[in-house]
Write a structure and sequence with these properties.
By secondary structure, this protein is an alpha+beta fold. The protein contains 2 helices and 9 strands, in the order ββαβββββαββ. The chain has a single domain (8-200), classed as Regulatory factor, effector binding domain (Multidrug-efflux Transporter 1 Regulator Bmrr, Chain A, Alpha-Beta Barrel). It starts with 7 loop residues before the first strand and ends with a strand.
């Protein structure tokens, strides 16, 4: 089974949870393009890193989800895509990733893979591609809405609005951009897919 970042549930209201993530590390790359192109290019760059494109030539196991964030505007939706675990070479680094999307136009998107929990900033292999940067996240509280279906821009916006309305009704302020997280591989049918809207609170 693919590793995902650990969390505890602080509160639950139907399909919405308040979660606390103790910590994780992201490998990130910024891409200027429309959403689909940015996602594809960013994913390729980061996948190359975990499949040996680093100074140690080590392979890193993949985690779910893969994430992205539109950093060129104030309202953003992050989309996460899961990756299956593969064993290639002597060492593997798991990755989790959400990907952010606002609209289909050209923006700057920050595509992120979550690194496996066994790594620290000091022990992660140095990327061959200098565009890849690392970010350590600690004690992150997230509001999360779970939903099914095959994610597209219209569905993502609808689910974000639902979570926004819940936050407003409960007097909870969003601190960051919204993220759409996808946990299944593309072959999984829409009615079985696990997707989430996430935002730091």
């Amino acid at each position: 089974m693919t590793e995902s970042p650990a969390y505890t549930v602080e509160n639950k209201d139907k399909d919405i949870e308040i979660r606390v993530y103790p910590g994780y590390i992201l490998a990130q790359v910024d891409i200027e393009a429309d959403f689909d192109k940015a996602m594809g290019l960013g994913f390729s760059i980061l996948a190359n890193y975990i499949f040996g494109g680093n100074k140690k030539k080590s392979n890193i196991s993949m985690m779910a989800p893969v994430s992205g964030e539109n950093i060129s505007s104030s309202e953003k939706i992050a989309m996460t895509i899961p990756v299956t675990e593969e064993a290639i070479g002597s060492e593997k680094i798991s990755m989790a990733a959400p990907v952010t999307e606002e609209d289909a136009g050209p923006h700057i998107y920050r595509i992120s893979f979550t690194m496996p929990s066994k790594y620290t900033l000091e022990t992660l292999p140095i990327p061959d591609d200098e565009r890849i940067k690392f970010k350590e996240v600690k004690n992150q509280k997230m509001a999360v809405l779970r939903f099914k279906g095959r994610v597209h821009h219209k569905l993502a916006n609808m689910e974000v609005e639902e979570l926004k309305n819940w936050l407003e009704k409960n007097n909870i302020k969003a601190k960051t951009n919204f993220i759409i997280a996808q946990y299944n591989n593309p072959a999984v049918p829409g009615f079985l897919r696990r997707n989430e809207v996430m935002v730091e609170v």
